[in-house]
Structures are given as C-alpha cells and as structure tokens.
Design a protein that fits this description.
Blueprint: E1 15-20, H1 24-36, E2 42-45, H2 54-57, E3 61-62, H3 76-103, E4 111-118, H4 126-139, E5 145-147, E6 165-174, H5 177-190, E7 194-196, E8 200-204, E9 207-210, E10 216-223, H6 229-234, E11 246-257, E12 268-270, E13 281-285, E14 289-293, E15 297-299, H7 308-321, E16 330-341, E17 347-350, E18 356-360, H8 366-381, H9 404-414, H10 428-445, H11 456-460
Parallel strand pairs: 1-2, 1-10, 2-7, 4-12, 10-18
Antiparallel strand pairs: 3-6, 4-6, 5-6, 8-9, 9-10, 11-14, 11-15, 11-16, 12-13, 13-14, 17-18
Helix pairs in contact: 1-5, 1-8, 3-5, 3-8, 9-10
Length: 476
C-alpha cells in the first residue's frame, strides 16, 4: 500500500465504489473513475505487497497481432478480446503520459517492435498461428515486414532449432511491469484514491468483508482480484453456476541482467502462442536487462511455489530457441498467477446481482488491455455508450470454440512441444501414444466438445464440470 494513500473509515458512510484487487486492471479502473468523477469515494482493497500478482510477474508485451492464433476469430468473444487489446496497445503511449503527469513521475519507456518467429521444428502450433498472425496483419493493413531470422541481432539459437521465418510488427512492443505498477500506485496516490492493505474474505449484499479490518459497505463493488476472484464469486449464491470458474495459471518468468560476454537481442523476440499457454519470448528493458518467459500450469487452487519443470522449460527454451549465450546472464525468478477463465475468455462487466461487477479472467492480457478495459468499464458504470463487449459478460454459458476432434488435436500438439516431437516431424509412435492418452482423458471427462488444452486434466479429474459445455456457433 502506498504510504501516502488515505486509510478508509469503515464506520463512515458507504464508499461509492469498492474495487477488490489491486493489480493493473483494478488500479486502472479506479484511476479512470476518479478522473471522470472527482467527488466519488473510491476504495481499492488488496494486499500491499501483491503476493503472486500476475501484473508484477508479467513481461508486459504490448501485443495484439502477435497474440493472434488460428482459432482467435472463431467466436465473437475472440474478436471482442482482440479488439480490446488492439485498441489498448495503440493507447498506451498517451495513457502512460497522462498517468505520469498525474503522478509527477517520468513515464516508463515503451520499447516498440516485436519479431514473431515461426519454429516448426519445436511446435506444431507455430506454422498455423504464424499464418494467422500474417493474415490478420494484412487484413488490418497493419505495419509489418517479413524478416530473415539470420539477420536478427543477438539471435543465436541451436543450429537445428533456428526459426524458418519471422515477421516484425512495429506496433507491438513491451514495457517494464515494475515501472508500470509504480506509476499506477503513484497516480492513485496523487488522486487520493483510498487504499486498504487487506485480503477480502467475501462479497455479499453490498458489503466487502476483510480478513483483518472492519466490513466495508459500498454502493458498487467490482471483483477484480485476478485468480483470487474465483473464491469470492463462488461465495455469492445468486451467481452459482452462472459464471465460468476462474483458475490459477501459474507462470514462471526470469528477470535477467546481461553480463559483458552476452550479446542479447535489442527487440522483443517471441514465438507464436503454443498450446496450453506456452511459447518462449525475450523482452529487453534497456541495454542490459531483459525478461524471459513463459510457462503456464493451471490449477483450481493457487500454487505457492513454481515447479522445477516450469523453470527448466523457460531456461531450456530460451537457450535453445533464442540464444545459447543467455546461459551467461544473471537472473531472478518471478512467479505470478494469471486469472484464466474456464473457457479461456475474460469475464468483464455487470452481473445480475445489483451493484456487483466482475473484471477478471484476462489470462496474460490483463495489463496490456488495462487502459481500454478501464475506459469501457467506467463508461458502463456511468451509463454511457462504448461499454464492455457483450460476449465477455461474466454471466454466460462457457464459450466453446473447438469440437471434440479439434480439442483432441490441440491437446496432442500441446503435449508434443519440443525438438523433433511436433506432429509430422517424425516420432509417429510417440504421437500415437499421446493421442491415445488424450482420448482417454476426454472419455474420462465425458467431453463431447473441445476444451482448452491446459484445462483438460482438470476436467478429467472432475475439478471442472463439462456437462454444461455445448458447441458454439462460429463467426469465421
């Protein structure tokens, strides 16, 4: 909690808006609302140190087109999410300048330019998702150029794992997570937004119950506590079975510093998204510092610590696919819990419970989309046009974009990421065995439709209920 933030008096009149959570989305909404309604009493509630924060652990790639997958536009929700992110990426420079002016700080530097690398030797996801990125760039007439990976500074992968092609997207880029969160805290303090350093136990009937402090009464409440939102939503009987679950996607990244013998890339280098939320990326900050990611282990409950396998995956992928010289860099591990909607899409907007709103499930796009989510959220709170996309409304049937056969294929490819293991690259016997395992999981879960690959085990274990999953109408 900022030392210059004001403490609320819970015995006083109810606050106008209580925001549960203090990550990038929550803070952005609070700031946007205060700027438009200066007299509103706003309270942001969350642990001051932000343990497990996805916002602080992020590499913050400001990416819209670079995140496109072959399935992105199969459903209206995919289009809505892409439009949110694309608008936000364009708004980031002006948004940072505005926040910096409020806080009296220098705005963090945005490092523009991202190169997406297609590496079919490692993942069967790369070629179709790379093609989808190119198709969307061309359709949107967005600036881009094809590049030969050989010409990229600092790109020195293992010889047999060199990317086959690349595309530079000047409009995408990256920014330092710590600097952004510091700026949001500074702007909130300058605007005298009240902060409460506490965890929330429950949200019911217009009252936020905290672990240590007194109850807080609020005219409106926004649950924006990232992956921790799930427990709070489950405690609201009126929403039982009406909102998709929100899961913990534990991701591991490395904040690194180059030593003199290391030549690092001077722009964002990344692969297309790979199944189960995987992929490898290098995000530079300044001349020496950079970030490496990423992993994604999904669970119903938070995992306090990262798995050794996750750390190994980041290290091995970065050294194999970006540069073997990275082994000389100094590094520090960071871990955060991404909020993942059980259908893979964000939960944004009002609920049928009077005065209750939800903003979570943004996966790894929450920080990137925060400026646009905040703008649209406040539009809705104030009854204005330009609100949140209807397909992402919290109360909905789970969105399904894959049929059963497609879901099985995605899960198989997710389990076959690695040199020489992707479908069609040889190793057919391994692929056949993995496919048999995946089919057994689908049968055990009783699934007639496809589910996100990273959630399949949870369905098979009975941790998620697949009985209400029905095929959706596509919009391709």
């Amino acid at each position: 909690m900022n030392s210059d933030s004001r403490h609320p008096d819970a015995s006083a009149d109810a606050v106008d808006l209580a925001i549960v959570g203090n990550g990038a989305v929550a803070m952005s909404i609070a700031i946007e609302h205060r700027r438009r309604v200066p007299d509103a009493r706003i309270l942001v509630i969350g642990p001051g140190r932000r343990p497990g924060s996805a916002s602080l652990a992020a590499g913050i790639m400001l990416a819209s087109h670079s995140e496109v997958e072959a399935t992105t536009f199969r459903h209206a929700a995919g289009r809505a999410k892409f439009d949110l992110i694309r608008t936000a990426v364009a708004d980031w420079p002006g948004w940072l300048d505005e926040l910096a002016a409020i806080a009296g700080l220098e705005p963090p530097r945005i490092r523009r330019g991202t190169v997406v690398l297609d590496n079919p030797n490692v993942s069967g996801f790369d070629p179709p998702n790379f093609d989808a990125i190119l198709e969307t760039l061309r359709r949107d007439e967005a600036d881009h150029e094809l590049v030969d990976p050989v010409d990229l500074r600092g790109y020195r992968p293992a010889a047999h794992l060199r990317a086959s092609r690349g595309v530079r997207v000047p409009g995408d880029g990256a920014v330092d997570a710590f600097a952004v969160m510091n700026l949001l805290d500074g702007a909130a303090a300058a605007l005298e937004i009240e902060r409460l350093d506490d965890r929330v136990e429950s949200v019911r009937d217009g009252i936020v119950r905290c672990e240590r402090g007194p109850d807080v009464r609020a005219a409106r409440i926004i649950v924006a506590a990232g992956a921790a939102s799930d427990r709070l939503i489950l405690g609201i009987p009126e929403l039982e079975g009406r909102v998709p679950r929100v899961l913990h996607g534990t991701g591991v990244g490395l904040r690194c510093r180059a030593t003199p013998e290391v030549t690092t890339p001077d722009e964002v280098l990344r692969t297309p998204n790979r199944g189960a939320g995987l992929g490898v990326y290098h995000v530079p900050f300044g001349s020496e510092r950079f970030y490496l990611g990423a992993t994604n282990v999904v669970s119903v409950e938070a995992r306090e610590h990262a798995r050794l396998g996750s750390l190994h995956l980041v290290l091995q992928s970065a050294m194999d696919e970006i540069s073997s010289e990275l082994r000389h860099a100094e590094c520090r591990m960071v871990t955060g819990h991404r909020p993942i909607g059980a259908d893979g899409f964000p939960l944004l907007g009002r609920t049928s419970v009077p005065g209750l709103w939800i903003a979570t499930g943004t996966r790894r796009d929450g920080v990137t989309a925060a400026p646009e989510i905040a703008r649209r959220f406040v539009n809705e709170l104030l009854g204005m046009d330009g609100g949140l996309p209807e397909p992402l409304s919290p109360e909905r049937a789970p969105i399904v974009v894959l049929d059963r056969d497609q879901g099985i294929d995605v899960a198989v490819r997710s389990r076959l990421i690695g040199p020489g293991s992707s479908p069609g690259a040889g190793g057919g016997r391994l692929e056949d065995e993995v496919r048999r395992q995946v089919v057994r999981l689908y049968d055990r879960a009783g699934l007639d439709v496809g589910v996100p690959a990273e959630l399949l085990d949870l369905y098979a274990e009975g941790r998620l209920d697949g009985s209400n999953l029905v095929a959706s109408t596509t919009v391709e």
